[in-house]
Amino acid sequence: MQVTEENSGADRRVGIIETSTELFLKNGYSGTSMSKIAAACGITKASLYHHFAGKEELFVACVTHGYSAALVALEEIASRSGPTAEDKLRAALSALYETIISSPVGRMSPLIAEVSRMFPTVARSFHTEYIEPQQALLWRIIDQGVENGTFLKVDERQIFHLIFGPIVMLSLSREMFASFDDLDTHFPVLQLRDGHIDAILGMMKAKSDA
Amino acid sequence: MQVTEENSGADRRVGIIETSTELFLKNGYSGTSMSKIAAACGITKASLYHHFAGKEELFVACVTHGYSAALVALEEIASRSGPTAEDKLRAALSALYETIISSPVGRMSPLIAEVSRMFPTVARSFHTEYIEPQQALLWRIIDQGVENGTFLKVDERQIFHLIFGPIVMLSLSREMFASFDDLDTHFPVLQLRDGHIDAILGMMKAKSDA
DNA sequence: GTCTATACAGTGATAGAC
DNA sequence: GTCTATCACTGTATAGAC
User: Fold this and answer.
1) In the prediction, which pLDDT does B5 show?
2) In whole angstroms, what is the distance from residue A168 CA to residue B99 CA?
3) Å between CA of A204 and C1' of D8
4) How many CB atoms lie within 10 A of CB A141?
5) pLDDT of residue A11
6) pLDDT (tens digit per residue) in B124-139
7) pLDDT at B203 > cutoff 60
8) Which of A116, A188, B78, B153 has CB atoms 3.0–4.6 Å from B176's, for a disulfide?
9) Where are the domains of chain A?
């Protein structure tokens, strides 16, 4: 980050969080040492430990830092009063792709998986503070459509399985095969996204034929 | 593994691979040191390095070791001549769930993601030696159904996005939230699997309504 | 709040005797 | 093939001066 302006207190914390988020994304959790983080921030390790009690706490701060933006975006969509339930669901799914593929939180998902195995605390907080609220917001939109008669009645866990699965895998794939030079050929975001959204909506509106 | 019988040469290698696979699954890649592996195998580090040139090579051996069983299972299904394309696809998808959720290879997917970021070589070999053959086999089944007239014509990448997404995410979720005591409530394999398979087949057989 | 200096456990990996 | 012993290094984390 490099200290170029007068930034003190909380600003410094945010700076550290953003810098270390980049490093975590680039080199993984274990691949990112406190020394490297300190160096990238232009301070020493000791100073870094003054701001964060340890590596685990710093990582949690990085993840948490990204929650809010993603959740408020979804919240905003869920609260719109103009559009139909279908349009809102489409917008919500697009937002999920945007979040998981492009934002730091989303791109960190493979990392969060890695760290969650080591620290169950991280797993629990990630689930209750991010996944559950996110699914609750999405469910509000779906449920509204169901009561509307727009959507078929569906099982909650089942539909989330089908919605989040492809999104998460795409994010995971793009991270793990980031070294491929034909990455976008193998994993074209927009194309896969649009097909997925159409499939989901096709399913939710389909007349039962079984 | 502990040496209880006369096992020499290649047997010893396999023993090490199986032991270290367990450790990798339990503690992650960075969380598993060569010392711990050696100790668990009842040998010293130096002996371990006699069998494997390094940690990375050992890990690749673990992953590769699991390929074959999974691929031959799928190969067997694709080559059946009796059942309809639909039944074969159902069997193949069930097998994929079985592989990814229960077998070491599948359960290692979060790990493979972690290691692939660090070693592009691993990413490349995993893709060409496992993912591509697997998708080719699955495509053979689908394509047969399409020529049959059983299935609609679908885009290859698109359908793989919808098929593998939920499976991979389920595997990832179950690993990262393994510490939850209500794991099976949140992520019930059989139920999610059956719903997913029905959804895929419903989609592939659906009359176009768009 | 930041620094210098350091403690100290653990890492992957190797040399050379048996 | 396995051992003992050791390498050079990095990891997280802390003490205490400024």
Assistant:
1) 44
2) 19
3) 61
4) 24
5) 81
6) 999 999 999 999 999 9
7) yes
8) A116
9) 1-52, 64-205
Percent above pLDDT 90 for chain B: 82
Give A207's DSSP letter. P
Top-tier CATH class for A64-205: mainly alpha
User: Which nucleotide shows the minimum CA-to-C1' distance to residue A57?
Assistant: D12
Alpha-carbon separation of residue A134 from A75, A76, A160, B110, B178 (angstroms): 9, 12, 11, 22, 21
The pLDDT, as a whole number, for residue B117 is: 86
Strands, E assignment, chain A: none
CB B142 within 8 A of CB B151: yes
The Cα B89–Cα B147 span in angstroms is: 14
Return the number of other C-beta atoms located less than 10 Å from residue B189's C-beta: 15
Residue A162, chain B, CB below 8 Å: the answer is yes
Residue B39 CA distance to nucleotide C5 C1' (Å): 35
> A180-207 pLDDT, tens per residue?
999 999 999 999 999 999 999 999 996 6
In the numeric block, which tokens belong to residue B66?
Answer: 């699991």
Contacts of A61 (CB under 8 A, 6+ apart): A13, A17, A52
Residue A193 backbone zone (phi > 0: left; psi -120 to 50: alpha; other: beta): alpha
Which of 1.10.10.60, 3.40.630.30, 2.30.180.10, 1.20.1270.10 would CATH assign to domain A1-52? Answer: 1.10.10.60
Give the residue on A whose Cα is nearest the Cα of B169: A165
Which pairs count as long-range contacts for A118-121, CB under 8 Å and 24+ apart, including other chains?
A118/B27, A118/B28, A118/B31, A119/A56, A120/B179
As a whole number, the mean pLDDT across chain A is 91
What is the per-residue pLDDT across B18-52, written as a single tens digit (0 to 9) for each?
A: 999 999 999 999 999 999 999 999 999 999 999 99
